[in-house]
Design goal:
single chain; 551 residues; alpha/beta; five-stranded antiparallel β-sheet; 20 strands; 15% strand; disordered N terminus
Amino acid sequence: MPVRSDHHGDDHRDDDWWRSAVIHQVYVRSFADGDGDGTGDLAGVREKLPYLAELGVDALWFSPWYLSPMKDGGYDVADYRTVDPAFGTLAEAEKLIAEARRLGIRTIIDIVPNHVSDQHAWFRAALAGGPERDLFHFRPGRGEHGELPPNNWTSEFGGPAWTRVTEPDGIPGDWYLHLFAPEQPDLDWAHPAVRQEHEDILRFWFERGVAGVRVDSAALPAKDPLLPDLVEGRGPHPYVDRDELHDVYRAWRAVADEYGAVFVGEVWLPDAERFARYLRPDELHTAFNFSFMTCPWDAARLRTSIDETLAEHAPVGAPATWVLCNHDVTRTVTRYGRADTGFDFAAKAFGTPTDLALGTRRARAAALLSLALPGTVYLYQGEELGLPEVEVAREHIQDPMHARSGGTDPGRDGCRVPLPWAAKEPYAGFGSRGTPWLPQPDGWAMYAVDRQQDDPGSLLTLYRRAIRLRPAFGTGPLTWLPAPEGVLAFERADGLRCLVNLADTSVDLPVHTGILLASGPLDSGNRLPKDTAVWLRTRPARFSAPEESPS
């Protein structure tokens, strides 16, 4: 496998690689099945590294690959120092990290600080009555016989955030806190052993060549020690965005700095100033941009999201991130083909109509929009193939969000269906023997990599071209340009411009010296159709990127 010397494969690359990287999210369970048992694994990822290198990404972010009962897709971790046998071995993870790095691709792993699995050694000891109980939030219940939860907190997955245990002597006992599923007990971050353990885990993986860590539910780990009832509108919140969290991340940053590693936080916060605190120079390096990811396909709202994102990051000097979808949200081509093109977990429902042709056209334009913006871009596996959201049959759904909603929420499995690699192979090339852990729908093979890789009009080809050309935009700021209503137009370095038409009619292109790339055919050669984006050169080139014809 050749090193991509043109794509930052050298070890002496600038330490600020993460400020403008394209990072590909790998949901291991659904990426590629190397051993044929129906579950994606690290062997499958290793086999596909040449594909990822050709795509041109700078890093891979892996969903959790640790030992887990898989009650929440691996986000219920039983042991952070062991790879789950379904995915492979620790030795194979080390090989993957090293092989990817030789191709110029760094590795980012997931850390889930808020909770562990109920099968974690600590929690099993806690249930047996050991001192490890102090590492979690165990409390007596309310009511005459302790039959009511200690407070009114609810789980992110629906239902109460508390489960009562049966003590070793067989009688009902204390309750334990779980902001997610009951199989995911929350850790008590006020305990020094919890903090020390996570710093040790970070070192464990940094020693194995990991270049970064994505912090799951980064604003949730710290809790008010009194565990009071949640009263909406009263601050501070008892478990979201607690001030004491910042000491944790400062300690983590000190560890990361020893290895030149980086963090990206999953931080969902509406307050821009509070959000920016996580990105101060001595805390996390970057955070996911949920505003942009959930924004409807609307020019004014997208521009507002972009402006607010850049403004949020500016005071702390952190780079913005741009995400169209991930392992938790409806896939882009499906969302953009619906009447409501935004995303809200509360609005998810079975049977929502979608125009996939429209959604695909908009997703192509959104790809060029996101890749032209300053900062880091995250690309979820299959996004480059234009995969739609799958409505998984109820009997096959595994996501706990579905069960805990009483069956009304379709859950997140629809964006986790195993990838199609080869149209004519069993299971579209995901694996040769075992039935995939989630069923692939009829027609899935039409999206296969081998059908798209040599097609100049495919979404895969568009992404490859766009990622290759993206460095021409440089690392400078964005300047908005005058444009017709419904059109986003901005300039970056060397007179390079991005235009995205979200209006109802086509618009004239401004004067330009060349077209780098277009998300779809232009009208009459010089008009930008609706739901189409284009990258233009408006002055003589100062870079070596080749000219691209409109796609």
